[in-house]
Amino acid sequence: MAKIKKKIRTITVNADKCNGCRTCEVMCSAFHAVPPYSSNNPGRSRIQIITDRLGDIWLPVFAGEYTEAECMGRNKYIIDGKEYRECDSCRASCPARDLFKEPDSGLPLKCDMCDGEDEPICVKWCLVDALSYEEREEEVEEEKPNMTQMEIGLEQFAKKHGLQTVIDTVTRMAKKG
Amino acid sequence: MRYAEAGYYLEIDLATGNIERVATDPKLMQLHLGGLGTSIKEHWDRVPPEVKAFDPENHLIFSTGLLNATPAFSANRSVVTFVSPQSGTLAYPMMGGFFAAELKYAGYDKVIFKNKSPNWVYLYINNDKVEIRDASHLQGRGAVETQELIRKELNLPKAQVAAIGLAGENRVFTASIEQSRSSASRLGGGAVMGDKKIKAIAVRGTKDIYLARPDEFMEQMKGVTDYIKYRWANPIKDVMTILSGIGSPQEMLHTDEKWHTENFAWGNARTRRRDFWTEEIDESWSKSQHAAVKRLISCFNCPTHCGALISHKDTPRYMAKCFGKLTYAMAAYVDDLDFSWKILQRATEYGVDSFSTPQILAFAVELYEAGILTDKDFAGCPSDKEGRFFWLLDRVVRREGIGDVLADGVYFAARKIGNGAEAFDHNTIKKHEQLPVKLGTLDPLYFLMYSTNEKISITQMEGQWPQSAFPTMEQREEFVRDWPQIPHEGFKQYVLDWELRGEKSIPYYPTPDMCSEIVDWMEMMHNIDDAVGMCCGMSSFCLKPPYHIHNYPKLISAATGMDLDEDGLKEIANRNRNLHRAYNNRKGIRRADEKPPQDHWKKRFPELEEELLSTYYKYKGWNEDGIPTREKLEELGLGYVANDLEMRGILKNGEN
């Protein structure tokens, strides 16, 4: 596969600095509300803090790609004396857990780096500097174009109701104008 | 659509198991804001003064604040209200942590419990799903342990759980309600929860909380954020370390405890150890604290970190709040900070107030040493200071032997024990253990705050006003130079004129008139914080905080959509304060109750104290007995309260 240059935009997490306040969750959900900041709900946030308070784990994780199937891994890892589950650091929205899904529709959520902003909102409002924003260029293998959010949504409806029902519904909506 | 608030209360009848989701009247917010304000109103309407703490008719209300679950930094307090078994008045301990926000995201502003459950239960709330669940398997479990067990049982790692430990189950008057890294501690909320047989409340919420004018709101938040950063970079000069920053006193961060250990009294509020903080102690305590504090942690949506995860040797882990680190060691006269980490863990699992409980234990030791309590009472008790405190704590929480008497707190225990024990009850006000602060001379501000506030403890009543005069004019000028938080410019002159010695010094300065103004300002800020659910560490408890009387109205207006100016907000705070006052007047509070113990200051000034009370009452619009006048009540739209007080003979007809 051909290599291409790609601008990588990412959030670097320093879990040792996280004080577990969940401001990132509040601000992410508020920023993505329509209109922006009109509502707040960490359940809709594209960044979630994985917590095991007594285990000293406060781990901010931002949402990656949606996966249709849950993975087979359920391992536990000990890092610096702390016990992490495999799921703790996984960025996927998957059938096995309710993270990174719209709480009402169940549709997956993905971090968009708050496109159009200087830096992601969660980074901007994290006053303890547990999150930082990074932009770099990398040579990567050419990927197939990503599915858009709408496609992902429609695919979910197709799975639930059948593709033909979705087509019929869209056609009917189009006719109504 | 409702803005800032969820618009629903959950009403739980524990006797019948009936659960109702009740829509609230938006006018309630306009009149009382939310949080403590609307809770007082509910108690006024529902719980007549004849009701005692452990009567089924006593209500236990868990309330969120108006700004909880919004992006407003540090708005995370849950307010718990009930008639207290200790003071007999309407108590309102608060906790930070994560509970209030989660409850609001579940769609509720308050959970109101009435009556009692026949069996141990816990309440499970997951958005619209609300169940009373069996908790028999949790009986006897620790308050921290219970939170973990319930999260596991529900398979909801993000659920927030408020729970009681053994102390609450046994109706110990100093029982707390523990949650995450916080607790609602003062005046026995855990005991009322235990009396109703509620072991815990677990909540998970994934609904939206709306803002009316989001752009305006975020503009205000930008100002607040910039100010937080500014204050971090510019600590206040010439004040003790713990007062120089923002947030609750950062005692998990700072190890220097010279000021507390040398100025607060040790044991049963008896002795000041003025030379305690030596180099050796500094080194030993710093080492102990650095080893025990695993991580500094915050409450919901708060950039400070006033709490800590504690991991001390073999002691199971727990989360500590600020001041408990000192209270047990100081009460027990134990000079090794390691003792604190050990006993705090046990106390947290039991769920007891770490201000009152050490005082009770120290009181018992004092009675034993005075021969009032005997070897029979202490049979089986180790003789060393540490062992003795652990033993006493176990007895109190289990209500075993002498512990059963002590479990009602110093005031009641002293009267039950008799034989001269009453003389050892020298640190309670309104039957409630106070901070062990005994000073040389009367401090007029402290006198008024301590004596008159419904919080019944100075613990959180002081705040935006400096605790003493600055020695030099340069320091005073520096302090007042950048002080936008004050209600009016006159306050600057009070600071500039305030001397350490001479005519314009304590106790005669600030004057009774100035004191009334200052106390009224502090009360107002606390009342607003407690209505909106703000941590007082970011507002009323803190010198030069990010939230104050000038930005609050704008923030509240933008959040709720109601247009509120400073006068409007002051009126609401006043309404809530007077309604609370009238409630406690109905419960018997009068001028005679508003005084610190006789030995509180070495030098007392009886005439000045009376003048202070009279001046303050007059300023508040209260009569000579500390009861709001009809005129004042009507001015605040509380005519119905005046009618009630008159009907009960508490206010005389036509009295003003």
Automatic annotation (TrEMBL), chain A:
Ranges of residues in domain 4Fe-4S ferredoxin-type: 9-39
SUPFAM superfamilies linked: 4Fe-4S ferredoxins
UniProt-listed InterPro entries: 4Fe4S_Fe-S-bd
Protein's name in the database: Fe-S-cluster-containing hydrogenase components 2
Organism annotation: Citrifermentans bremense
UniProtKB/TrEMBL annotation, chain B:
SUPFAM superfamilies reported for this sequence: Aldehyde ferredoxin oxidoreductase, C-terminal domains, Aldehyde ferredoxin oxidoreductase, N-terminal domain
Keywords: 4Fe-4S, Iron, Iron-sulfur, Metal-binding, Oxidoreductase
Domain spans labelled Aldehyde ferredoxin oxidoreductase N-terminal: 6-207
Keyword Metal-binding: yes
SMART domains: AFOR_N
InterPro entries on file: Ald_Fedxn_OxRdtase_dom2, Ald_Fedxn_OxRdtase_dom3, Ald_Fedxn_OxRdtase_N, Ald_Fedxn_OxRdtase_N_sf, OxRdtase_Ald_Fedxn_C, Tungsten_al_ferr_oxy-like_C, W-dependent_AOR
Cofactor dependency: tungstopterin; [4Fe-4S] cluster
Gene3D superfamilies attached to this UniProt entry: Aldehyde Ferredoxin Oxidoreductase Protein, subunit A, domain 2, Aldehyde Ferredoxin Oxidoreductase Protein, subunit A, domain 3, Aldehyde ferredoxin oxidoreductase, N-terminal domain
MF-aspect GO terms: 4 iron, 4 sulfur cluster binding; electron transfer activity; metal ion binding; oxidoreductase activity, acting on the aldehyde or oxo group of donors, iron-sulfur protein as acceptor
One Pfam family, short name: AFOR_N
Family named by the database record: Belongs to the AOR/FOR family.
Protein name: Tungsten-containing aldehyde:ferredoxin oxidoreductase
Organism: Citrifermentans bremense
